UniProtKB/TrEMBL annotation:
The protein's name: Cytochrome c oxidase subunit 2
Family under the similarity heading: Belongs to the cytochrome c oxidase subunit 2 family.
InterPro entries: CcO_II, CcO_II-like_C, Copper_CuA, Cupredoxin, Cyt_c_oxidase_su2, Cyt_c_oxidase_su2_TM_dom, Cyt_c_oxidase_su2_TM_sf
Organism, scientific name: Propioniciclava sinopodophylli
The entry's keywords: Copper, Electron transport, Membrane, Metal-binding, Oxidoreductase, Respiratory chain, Translocase, Transmembrane, Transmembrane helix, Transport
EC number: 7.1.1.9
Amino acid sequence: MALSGCSQATVEQWGRWGLPEAASDRAPFIGDLWNGAWIASMVVGVIVWGLIGWAVFRYRRRSESDVPRQVKYNLPMEILYTLVPFLVIGVLFFFTVQAQNGVLAKESDDAVHKIDVIGQKWSWTFNYMEAENPAIGVDAHTVGTVEEIPTLVLPLDKPVRFKLNSADVIHSFWIPDFYFKLDVIPGRTNTFDVTATKEGTFLGKCAELCGTYHAAMVFHVEVVPEAEYNEYVKQLAADGQTGALIVPEFPSTGPKLEG
Ligand SMILES: [Cu+2]
């Protein structure tokens, strides 16, 4: 077990406090927050451990008869340990809001590819909304199932606007290498922009326990050059997967009656 921690990849991952290698333009916001939170916790931890050690050593029992002065309360101390946690939370809150604003910042409307995602029990539907894109000119979709894991194809270095909708229960759209996930909520559209910055294949998953086959709710992400992406969407449409699928108006989460 100890030796398995020695591989080059694992050592590099240690340097990122366990995060995978970043593959999106939004990753630095979350990565910096994650690193900063670890460093801040370490600093707080060292101070607390130091104080504990100091108190244990400094006020250790020196004789059998000497009992230290007994006190009921210490007002300055109590004010201090009421205020310090607020300070800690305040700092974390400030940087969290900053990271959130960075991650959710919008690209200009005409520069983005548009992909509408539907989470359904227990897979994903990807709608490529490219009818108005002169390079493609058509909408196309792909539907995954538990047996057939769907693939999401993304253009490299091009901003994509995701719209997330659910057909039934709350899911969460997560591509770990992008350092980002967003809830997929029935009756509500969540949206975010992201640019994939690394070519290759990644894994996506549902990050919200949504039911029996939640664990099967995975998808592949393939980041390819834009020309290849355009070809892929056109091919989907040519293969008959034309148009976009929509969420049923009244999603049914209960069992359906036969017939
Ligand atoms: Cu799910």
